[in-house]
């Protein structure tokens, strides 16, 4: 089985081109299934009932979205084993995904984003950098992994775009606002040279040691500013991405355009923002429609 898992890992990396985080999740899910089955049961001989019992077990402490991810991981693995002629049937095929309740994303208003940026300490090189990071994430709708991976060679300011490396190592070009261009240039000219080290020569946003920023550092930057601002919302880097998409939709952008800029493969992933906008429309009607004032 270890040999099959090793082959599956190469298959995911080389043929499917999955992101590193996705690969880690797939292997973690396989490990948990093996732990549940015990050392006496070979995963090659797993039956549908075994998978159902496993999902029933983890349902007590894992969210529906995580259960769905586990089923997806197992489905990919057993389909791979079929391709390798190791098994003939996929035990996951007829297992339904758990029902998921879609939560509306946390969104900041433009004023709240302005407030966070106004509280940045611009006397420090990190402050100028943080301002540029927030502006870039909000104006381009970037994932945290995408912003920390940005390179100087990804900036096409004359054309008004940046090149982004998204999930599954897929590239896309995203329009960038003039305000973000100005703040990035300001950071490059004023602060980046004080942080620059040769090993991170092309990385745009650097830490104090001149190395690439981590996801955790971006979380910390936003959490600290949120605390100073006194905001009660659960703000994360993804909040800026959600705010970008929601504000675009509220101002008339179509879902297809938002989908392309966010790098979503499926339009259904983007439709959560449509639900958010519908809720806002309902509130507007309830507030302003004359019949509601009778």
UniProtKB/TrEMBL annotation:
The keyword Chloroplast does not apply. CDD domains: INT_XerDC_C. Keywords: Cell cycle, Cell division, Chromosome partition, Cytoplasm, DNA integration, DNA recombination, DNA-binding. Residues 1-82 form the Core-binding (CB) domain. It comes from the Bacteria. Forms a cyclic heterotetrameric complex composed of two molecules of XerC and two molecules of XerD. Signal peptide: none annotated. The gene is xerC. NCBIfam families: PRK00283.1. Pfam families: Phage_int_SAM_1, Phage_integrase. One of its GO terms (cellular component) is cytoplasm. This is Tyrosine recombinase XerC. The active site is at residues 143, 167, 238, 241, 264, 273. GO terms for molecular function: DNA binding; tyrosine-based site-specific recombinase activity. The keyword DNA-binding applies. One of its GO terms (biological process) is DNA transposition. It comes from Paenimyroides baculatum. It is found in: Cytoplasm. Site-specific tyrosine recombinase, which acts by catalyzing the cutting and rejoining of the recombining DNA molecules. The XerC-XerD complex is essential to convert dimers of the bacterial chromosome into monomers to permit their segregation at cell division. It also contributes to the segregational stability of plasmids. Belongs to the 'phage' integrase family. XerC subfamily. PROSITE patterns: CB (PS51900), TYR_RECOMBINASE (PS51898). Residues 103-286 form the Tyr recombinase domain.
